[in-house]
TrEMBL record:
Protein name: Biotin-dependent carboxyltransferase family protein
Source superkingdom: Bacteria
Signal peptide: none
UniProtKB keywords: ATP-binding, Hydrolase, Nucleotide-binding, Transferase
GO MF terms, alphabetically ordered: ATP binding; hydrolase activity; transferase activity
Record-annotated Carboxyltransferase domain positions: 27-290
Length: 290
């Protein structure tokens, strides 16, 4: 079935449209963006029969409520949260039918931070530079959603999948991030690298889609001269002048002028997407072979 609209009844703390991201434009200063928890986004699309690059809704902590003008299949993955249709409990991580005019309400996450809502056919907003993702840093793509917004629905091309089991990683009670040291680990004192490897940090309340900011000990630099801006990417662990590491996420800038002590491989970033403020964090450095 094609056509129809999706109305945002309650936008929650922060709900954005996300897909796999905006690739191939870093050289002109355009961040990648895309769903922070890529496995949860892909799973949601797979369960409703969408291709993995279909746009989903990414919610933050307090969920979202919506209704559609035609019957649709919906699923909620990512951070577990109560799911209701017109006030009645519905399944989480399982495709359910949403009648035309009925309200799907995704409540506050019980663990983790970000939930993903996929609708059969996807959300058919116009792509910008090949992606439908909202980029909060550059302002590209659709704006963050507000109460009363309406979105076009795409055409369903596949059938929902009713899986007996769903492989899903529960948001951690302690976030352990592997870090490949470099390219600027030599700008830091040896004690700073030891601190990175042994100290416990915690997630700052100032974290967002751009970066996961840390509270905890500072990392002392050995080199104090100015660093010309260098390319950055999601997973880069940059250390600003206050000495507290910052882990870049999907909406991060494409260049930066502070030294990068290491890089978190992409497979470690999905857990970072679900890290709530105050969550303990440890880094597990891996030295490069020289």
């Amino acid at each position: 079935m094609s056509g129809g609209k999706l109305e945002i009844v309650r936008a929650g703390a922060l709900t954005t449209i996300q897909d796999l991201g905006r690739f191939g434009h870093a050289h002109v200063g355009v961040p990648r963006s895309g769903a922070l928890d890529q496995p949860a986004h892909r799973l949601a699309n797979r369960l409703v029969g969408n291709p993995t690059d279909a746009a989903t809704l990414e919610t933050t902590l307090t969920g979202v409520a919506l209704r559609a003008t035609r019957p649709v299949t919906v699923v909620v993955t990512g951070a577990p949260a109560p799911v209701r249709i017109d006030g009645r409990p519905a399944a989480w991580a399982c495709p359910v039918d949403l009648p035309a005019g009925a309200v799907l309400d995704v409540g506050t996450a019980t663990t983790g931070l970000r939930s993903y809502v996929a609708i059969g056919g996807g959300i058919a907003v116009e792509p910008v530079l090949g992606s439908r993702s909202t980029d909060l840093l550059s302002g590209l793509g659709p704006a963050r959603l507000g109460d009363g917004d309406t979105l076009p629905l795409g055409t369903a091309v596949g059938r929902p999948v009713h899986a007996d089991t769903v492989h899903w990683h529960q948001p951690p009670r302690e976030l352990v991030l592997p870090v490949l040291l470099g390219p600027r680990d030599d700008w830091f004192a040896a004690a700073a690298v030891r601190t990175l490897a042994t100290a416990r940090f915690s997630v700052s309340a100032h974290s967002n889609r751009i970066a996961l900011r840390m509270e905890g000990p500072t990392l002392e630099r050995a080199v104090h001269r100015e660093l010309p801006s260098e390319g950055t990417l999601p997973g880069a662990v940059q250390v600003p002048t206050d000495g507290k590491p910052v882990v870049f996420l999907a909406d991060c800038p494409t260049t930066g002028g502070y030294p990068v002590i290491g890089v978190v491989p992409e497979h470690g970033l999905a857990a970072a997407a679900q890290a709530v403020p105050g969550l303990p964090v440890r880094f597990a450095p891996i030295r490069r072979r020289r």
